[in-house]
């Protein structure tokens, strides 16, 4: 009988070290191998010098710039507390949805500036920006936020007014005589 306890040689794959440097959009993420040779993006943490994650959110004509940092759960909008800025409970609930889904309500302080559109559009823009900022701070939260649609920009905007029309589609009143 022969003894088959010989060790098999281990060959290291050096392809990751010889790959060219990522440029443009791919610089935000690295490429990792998952499963049977499938390439999936591996997102990396993206913070500024103060340890904050930043992102921009948009909805209708509103644009929100959102910064998150570790804290007690305080949300500040344009220098005001969220209770002062958004009087309606539904808008405050809308902003907090990404934090509720990820169980991070009391872990982050949110500071944002928002402009344009109305209060509803601004709340949607803050929610969109907050969701992206959470993925920049903790990339592992992306699979939790994506199914709820928080990372998707709602592209619906007001239709422009056409000439010969009262509004975008409404005609002027018809006169028989």
Structure, explained:
By secondary structure, the chain is α+β, with helices and mostly antiparallel strands. The protein has helices at 15-18, 82-85, 89-101, 119-137, 142-145, and strands spanning 29-34, 38-43, 53-59, 62-70, 75-77, 80-81, 108-115. Strand 1 and strand 2 form a beta hairpin. The protein starts with 14 loop residues before the first helix and ends in a 32-residue tail after the last helix. Mean pLDDT is 85; it is low at 8-28.
Please give the structural blueprint.
Blueprint: H1 15-18, E1 29-34, E2 38-43, E3 53-59, E4 62-70, E5 75-77, E6 80-81, H2 82-85, H3 89-101, E7 108-115, H4 119-137, H5 142-145
Parallel strand pairs: 5-7
Antiparallel strand pairs: 1-2, 3-4, 4-7, 5-6
Helix pairs in contact: 3-4
In short:
With 177 residues, the chain is of the alpha+beta class. The protein is built from 5 helices and 7 strands; from the N terminus they run αββββββααβαα.
The structure class reads alpha+beta
Q: Element order, helices and strands? A: HEEEEEEHHEHH
Measured on Cα atoms, how large is the radius of gyration? 24 Å
Which overall shape is indicated by the principal axes computed on the Cα atoms? globular
Whole-number mean pLDDT: 85
Largest sheet: 5 strands, mixed
The number of distinct β-strands equals 7
As a percent range, the share of helical residues equals 10-25%
Unreliably modeled segments: 8-28
Number of helices: 5
Strand order of the biggest β-sheet = 3-4-7-5-6
Distance between the termini: 112 Å
- % residues in beta strands: 15-25%
């Amino acid at each position: 009988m022969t003894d088959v306890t010989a060790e098999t040689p281990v060959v290291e794959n050096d392809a990751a070290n010889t790959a060219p440097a990522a440029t443009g959009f791919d610089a935000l993420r690295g490429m990792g191998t998952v499963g049977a040779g499938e390439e999936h993006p591996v997102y990396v943490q993206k913070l500024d010098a103060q340890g904050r994650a930043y992102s921009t959110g948009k909805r209708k004509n509103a644009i929100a710039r959102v910064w998150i940092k570790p804290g007690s759960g305080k949300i500040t909008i344009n220098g005001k507390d969220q209770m002062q800025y958004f009087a309606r409970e539904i808008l405050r609930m809308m902003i907090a949805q990404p934090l509720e889904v990820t169980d991070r309500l009391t872990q982050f302080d949110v500071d944002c500036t928002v402009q344009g559109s109305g209060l509803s559009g601004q709340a949607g823009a803050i929610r969109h920006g907050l969701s992206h900022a959470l993925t920049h701070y903790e990339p592992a939260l992306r699979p939790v936020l994506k199914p709820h649609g928080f990372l998707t920009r709602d592209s619906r905007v007001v239709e422009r007014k056409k000439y010969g029309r009262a509004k975008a589609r409404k005609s002027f009143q018809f006169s028989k005589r």
